[in-house]
């Protein structure tokens, strides 16, 4: 361990404050990319910088060990959720009762800062490392994940990865996938003086949604998996009709479905269509298709992922967490989808999710991160890198 002194521990907090103070809502990551690059250079890391769009840099800080060996990838996103309804100044970091408040504090500038600080500390003992530590600061995770997708397209090579999303220092080695689905009912427009409910797309959509709510939970329960549980679905958006005096010709419901490993689009869409057609009137046409909402460029999918429980990165993180906190980190699934799926499925890098803070604080009106957990995470990352590359 290249243990930090008291001055370095103060710098741990100052770095997080500097990052939180930089506005970086998705689509405006230029300033924070510049700042991260400067921090990497001040740490003495090799720097590679790429642009995925105007003002949207991908910045890599690379620490090469004294001997050849594997590579470990730390991945953290620089963009944040919007701030329109934030309480107070979202970019004025405030420390109170052991917490640091500000937009992005937990999602995920805390994780990114912890990864950067761990790499900076390891610089002084790089000769102990066999291989390389790569810290990737990427944009666009909150929208289309184009930053990490660029890493996969670039061909970044590593034997394992950690994404620093907030997990409360638990190891997330599995997640459900995400599919956005448009379910559309098409009826017959006519004057309401001579209408039938069988021809009204909105009326028929109501019957379909009731049938989905009734039938899908039982079907999903039969597919339950030990780690990830069942698939999930949510109807989040409905639009249809045109005027009160015209029978609605069309109604579309947009669903978000959380998928299990092994589920394929043909099965998912076919199941929805089967239930919908059975519930709807024969006077209406029903169709199911992938929604364009948040569709990743190039046809990329938000696939489920799972890393084996005995994999080296899981074991190294468990050991490192035990050394720092005195307790072994739990491992399991995370309830959200994130860039770890892209690294695992598209880049071929087995990647887990592990970071400081509570995901429930993400996107909130008063976002915060626990500073003790943040400090512990820096040391865990540092020990994990030493363990994996030692």
UniProtKB/TrEMBL annotation:
The keyword Zinc applies. SUPFAM superfamilies: Bacterial exopeptidase dimerisation domain, Zn-dependent exopeptidases. Pfam families: M20_dimer (PF07687), Peptidase_M20 (PF01546). The keyword Nucleus does not apply. Its EC number is 3.4.-.-. GO terms for molecular function: hydrolase activity; metal ion binding. Residues 175-280 form the Peptidase M20 dimerisation domain. Gene3D superfamilies: 3.30.70.360, Zn peptidases. CDD domains: M20_ArgE_DapE-like. InterPro entries: ArgE/DapE, Bact_exopeptidase_dim_dom, Peptidase_M20, Peptidase_M20_dimer, Peptidase_M20A. Its cofactor is Zn(2+); Co(2+). Keywords: Cobalt, Hydrolase, Metal-binding, Zinc. Belongs to the peptidase M20A family. This is Peptidase, ArgE/DapE family. It comes from [Clostridium] asparagiforme DSM 15981.
């Amino acid at each position: 361990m290249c243990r930090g002194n008291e001055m370095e521990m103060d710098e741990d907090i100052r770095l997080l404050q500097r990052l939180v103070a930089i506005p970086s809502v998705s689509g405006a990551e230029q300033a924070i990319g510049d700042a991260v690059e400067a921090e990497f250079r001040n740490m003495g890391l090799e720097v590679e910088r790429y642009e995925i769009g105007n003002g949207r840099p991908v910045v890599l800080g690379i620490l090469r060990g004294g001997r050849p060996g594997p590579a470990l990838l730390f991945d953290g996103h620089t963009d944040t959720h919007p701030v329109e309804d934030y309480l107070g100044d979202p970019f004025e970091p405030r420390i109170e009762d052991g917490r640091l408040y500000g937009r992005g504090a937990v999602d995920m500038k805390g994780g990114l800062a912890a990864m950067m600080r761990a790499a900076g500390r390891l610089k002084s003992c790089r000769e102990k490392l066999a291989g390389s530590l790569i810290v990737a600061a990427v944009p666009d995770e909150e929208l289309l994940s184009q930053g990490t997708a660029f890493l996969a397209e670039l061909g970044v090579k590593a034997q394992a990865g950690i994404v620093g999303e907030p997990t409360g220092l638990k190891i997330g080695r599995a997640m459900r996938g995400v599919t956005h689905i448009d379910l559309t009912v098409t009826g017959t427009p006519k004057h309401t003086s001579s209408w039938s409910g069988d021809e009204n797309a909105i009326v028929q959509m109501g019957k379909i949604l009731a049938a989905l709510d009734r039938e899908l939970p039982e079907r999903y329960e039969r597919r339950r998996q030990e780690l990830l549980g069942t698939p999930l679905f949510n109807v989040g958006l409905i639009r249809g009709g045109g005027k009160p005096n015209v029978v609605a010709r069309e109604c579309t419901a947009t669903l978000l479905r959380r998928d299990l490993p092994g589920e394929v689009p043909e099965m998912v869409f076919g199941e929805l269509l089967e239930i919908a057609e059975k519930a709807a009137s024969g006077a209406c046409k029903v169709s199911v298709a992938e929604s364009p909402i948040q569709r990743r460029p190039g046809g990329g999918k938000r696939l489920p992922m799972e890393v084996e429980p005995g994999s080296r990165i899981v074991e190294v993180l468990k050991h490192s967490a035990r050394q720092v906190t005195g307790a072994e980190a739990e491992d399991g699934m995370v309830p959200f989808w994130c860039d770890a799926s892209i690294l695992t499925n598209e880049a071929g890098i087995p990647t887990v999710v592990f970071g400081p803070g509570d995901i429930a604080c993400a996107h909130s009106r008063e976002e915060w991160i626990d500073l003790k957990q943040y400090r512990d995470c820096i040391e865990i990352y540092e020990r994990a890198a030493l363990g994996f590359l030692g």
